[in-house]
Amino acid sequence: MSEDDASENVHSALGYRRPGSYEELRAVLSSGSMRLPKQLRQVAIYLAQNPSDIALGTVVEIAQNARVQPSALVRFAQSLGYPGFSDLQEIFKDYVKINWPETRERDAAAAPSAMGDPDFRIVAGLVKASVASLTRLPEKIDVATFAEVANLMAEAETIYLIGSKRAFPVTIYMALALSQLGVRNSLVDNVGSTAFEQIGFASTRDVAFAISFSPYNSITPALAATARQKGSAVLSITDSPLSPLAPLSRAWLQINESDFGGFRSLAATMAVGMSLVLAVAQRRQKKAPAAKKGPRRTAAGKANGLA
């Protein structure tokens, strides 16, 4: 049997064609066609977020980092139609060859400083992780999706900002910035456990902008689902096609932050969040009447007051 025939058989049996590239793998994972048990879903999330680690690591190392047994990696590969995990690993190796500078940046960020005391190494490690996240961002951001998110936010009557735990600092700063720029918004902060009451005012004229990261154990997806039931468009930042926010969102941006010592940076997420704020303000200014009495402050000028 030829490889094409084998691929067709896999497609018929599983409902999707065996991915031939990292991009195709991401498409399969985000399509919702795979129904995975909890452990294999954990593998899928780790693989989608860490392609360089998958390409360069051993099965034992990858399993340890994903917090699963090595056999789970094999089962996941077979669920995609591959004979074994090493066959699946080849598409990650091809991806890393194309994106080799990213791998070098990641390794540099992970390497501890050879000089200085332990406190300095902590500072240097966290700074390098943030720099790695920011350096990777311009090449990885989906510009068309960014524009779609900004357009929908600019057209909304009210922007509901949803984020808890690690994502909350980003949403609260976006709320401050939008308010400074005269854009109506509502921060769903869950003070007094009133988050669902807060999002209950959302309507078809509004959008809900949500941020959530793995392991997705916050109430953010539930709040986003409530906003969608109210007729609001859900927009989001998350870190995997398997995020519960992905199927809820009309448009979503994927951001994967580098980590140091088990703590992930927020640098890239904050940069994208504030970029959306400015993009929304600029779009609204263009729609405003051209002739106005008195001087008008620009979005950039108002943003200087956020410091």
Question: Could you please describe the fold and organization of this structure?
Answer:
It is a single chain. The chain has 307 residues and is α/β, with parallel strands linked by helices. 56% of the residues lie in helices and 9% in strands. It has 15 helices and 7 strands. It has helices at residues 3-14, 22-31, 38-49, 51-56, 59-66, 70-79, 85-98, 100-110, 118-140, 143-155, 168-180, 195-199, 220-229, 267-287, 299-303, and strands spanning 159-163, 185-188, 207-211, 233-238, 251-254, 259-260, 263-264. It has a 5-stranded parallel sheet with strand order 2-1-3-4-5. It has a two-stranded antiparallel sheet with strand order 6-7. Strand 1, helix 11 and strand 2 (185-188) form a beta-alpha-beta unit. Helix 11 runs parallel beside helix 14 (267-287). The longest helix has 23 residues, at 118-140. The N and C termini lie far apart (65 Å).
Provide a brief overview of the structure:
Helices cover 56% and strands 9% of the residues. It is built from 15 helices and seven strands. The protein has a five-stranded parallel beta sheet with strand order 2-1-3-4-5. Strands 6-7 form a two-stranded antiparallel ribbon.
**Largest sheet strand order:** 2-1-3-4-5
- Rg, rounded, reads 21 Å
**Cα end-to-end separation:** 65 Å
Shape, per Cα inertia axes: globular
Number of helices: 15
Largest beta-sheet characterization: 5 strands, parallel
Helix content: 55-70%
Structural class: alpha/beta
H/E series: HHHHHHHHHHEHEHEHEEEEHH
Q: State mean pLDDT (0 to 100 scale).
A: 82
Low-pLDDT regions: 1-14, 106-114
Q: Got a strand count?
A: 7
Residue fraction in strands: 5-15%
